[in-house]
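Lab manual, section 2.4: Encoding a predicted structure.

Procedure: take the sequence of the chain (394 residues), apply the prediction step described in section 2.3, and record the output as structure tokens. A sample record is shown.
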Amino acid sequence: MRIIIYDGNLKPSTFVRFLSENLAKAGHTVYLAGKGKQMFVSKEKSGLRLLPVSTPGYVRGFLGFIISFLSIAFCCPSKFSFIIKLALKQRSFVGRLSEFVFISRVYSVNPDIIHIQWSTHIAVFRDIIKKGNIKFIVSFRGRMINISPFVDKKIAALYRELFPEIEGFHAVSNSILENAGLFGADKGKAKVVYPAVNDTLFYGEEVETTFKKPDSILRILSVGRQHWKKGYPVALDVCKTLKDKGINFIYTIIAGGDKEELIYDIHDLGLENNIKLVDRLPHDEVLDVYRQSHLFLLPSFEEGVANVALEAMAIGVPVISTNCGGMEELIENDKNGWIVPVRDVGSMVRAVERFIAIPEKRIYEIVSEARKTIEKNHLQSMQTKRMIELYKSI
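Recorded output:
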């Protein structure tokens, strides 16, 4: 198959990159489409092809236009007038050139599938979707479905307009699929394919060596950008209670973004010696921090199924998570981790205390069950196979 993966960025999220690469390794022709001047890895290494959304600047834009003009005139002249019409909708000269170049490239590729990774990006392809001569799949992930259409009427209207025109949907959880149905997504056209971790991460880890019982200092970890939905202020209230109870701990938060609110809360609660804020790190370095941690905390208000929790479970770090989004589809309380209500400081504190109190053998059993969950439902080899099944079904 010829597949366009549209992430909106030529340096996509880790999970989108892995999906794209794995599809290419499976023998499919994969184009990564989005904004950016350079790809995240060499095309030779990844097996992917590049499809930029725009060609910046007047000179490069004009050259791109000439090349695309000749290409589309030769490859698919029947689409020529349609592409011109789309380009003329743009207000600026450069915008018109860029639109013509991008849409021409899309039609020149002649894809079997365009897979839009973030649902709001269907706006980029509105007219092509309505034209109906290319098949589309839209992924439902976290905020784009669970939050955006409920707080932005324009996004809700966009979904209601275009979802009925889409041939297939991919949801990262059953929970998120229910929300998508409220905006016109046909659940009969949808397939739940859970997020996944790299097979090498799972099979390369030895629980016997990575899992560790806390000694004198409990090391707790959270990973995820600084955003209100991640629930970090609630986690800091948990830390305040743990400190008042005399529990010795270090809580590390790896998060990009403005941390002014967190820094203020840390000082206000007197937690300067207990909290460590770390900015974005390369993925390999983040995994090293997992291995140094005793417990992973996901205090979020909203998630699809959090990749960071999957990574913790694969490596062998016990997870405490709120019951947000699809997390109850991943974690069964007291079997492969712990689930607590959203915003419930007391329940989170009790879960941490339970972790500290239970025997090491019992924690090892929970970690082992967590890894079985990853092996059963959340390996990328399995995810790639299921995505290919979805592509073929449409």
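Check your result against the sample. Confidence is low (pLDDT under 50) at residues 55-62.
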